[in-house]
């Protein structure tokens, strides 16, 4: 079919118009949720950024590697003779803003999570990574060994494909079952919940606490002095890392849930809760005293019951908060400086197990900024 020049022109215009509109929908529309926010923010200028592995081991197999006999990739029957495997390291991504503050913040995720915890929030706002870069702090984000981008494990495991979203909905205290708590500081947009579920990531090897804190200690050996910021399962691992490394000058822990470290002879009785039991661990006083030498802040969110609850997702945090209070008192009794804040007690309500990415995360960040300044860690 032949077209006149006029018809050809208008057909072309229509085609390019469709392409342009498609471009806007695909590229710009996803940013629309934060379009207004973006207009009000100044450009974020990064002086330096990069990534590297920290810690880890090398596993070797006996024999001699033959590049002909053993050089073909066959995942069903891969030969190992004379070969090595580099694994069990942490993966670290870092950014340094212009005119940086002296001490960097090192962010460590919790169970089933990765560095995504500290990045863009499930509803598309800036997370602690960007918030604290804007406030002048160098930031280091960790994927602990055998998790996320540090998935190369020296030990095998089986990865489950269990349907467990609603289990974590309860344990992470967004609500009960599939219903959000009233007043919860989490977006009720279904897309936000979808994004939240998709940030879960499995262990690619057996969970080994010593491997984890060894890698994070290696990170502090590399970068020098800094402040460690932990969440949930990394909370207890953070105490253990500080026992190993004097470059940790302060610890901020959001909702630590296990591995509270007490002096031998002062370990409290386990705390039972629906679905389990929380036990502390003892270390020699000569090691424990290290935790009395640095300022520590602990924060817990909302919906943690004072009395036993029938819901396991709430119960384990009742036990954790109770153990944390005993731990604070013990560290401070021995000359330490632990501040424990239960956010509802200071008028901040509705926070989940992820206060760093809740709707009010800027207010949570303000608490951290104020504490860092108060303790001369800024």
Name a few traits of the molecule.
378 residues; Rossmann fold; 8-stranded mixed β-sheet; disordered N terminus; AB_hydrolase_fold
Write the layout of secondary structure elements.
Elements: H1 5-28, H2 35-40, E1 46-54, E2 57-60, E3 84-87, E4 90-97, E5 105-108, H3 128-134, E6 139-143, H4 165-171, E7 175-176, E8 179-180, H5 190-198, H6 209-223, E9 226-231, H7 233-244, E10 248-254, E11 261-263, E12 271-273, E13 276-278, E14 281-283, H8 285-288, E15 295-300, H9 312-333, E16 337-342, H10 361-374
Parallel strand pairs: 5-6, 5-9, 9-10, 10-15, 11-14, 15-16
Antiparallel strand pairs: 1-4, 2-3, 4-6, 7-8, 12-13
Structure description:
With 378 residues, the protein is α/β, with parallel strands linked by helices. It folds into two domains: 5-40; 46-374, 3-Layer(aba) Sandwich (Rossmann fold). Helices cover 32% and strands 20% of the residues. α4 crosses α9 (312-333) and α6 (209-223) packs across α7 (233-244). It is globular. The model is unreliable at 1-33 (pLDDT under 50). The chain crosses the membrane at residues 15-33.
User: How large a portion of the residues is in β-strands, by DSSP E?
Assistant: 15-25%
Q: CATH topology of the largest domain, anyone?
A: Rossmann fold
* Global structural class: alpha/beta
Number of strands: 16
Low-confidence stretches: 1-33
Number of contiguous helices: 10
CATH class of the largest domain: Alpha Beta
Profile the largest sheet. Answer: 8 strands, mixed
Query: Within the largest sheet, what's the order of strands?
Result: 1-4-6-5-9-10-15-16
CATH superfamily of the largest domain: Alpha/Beta hydrolase fold, catalytic domain
Average pLDDT for all residues: 91
Shape assignment: globular
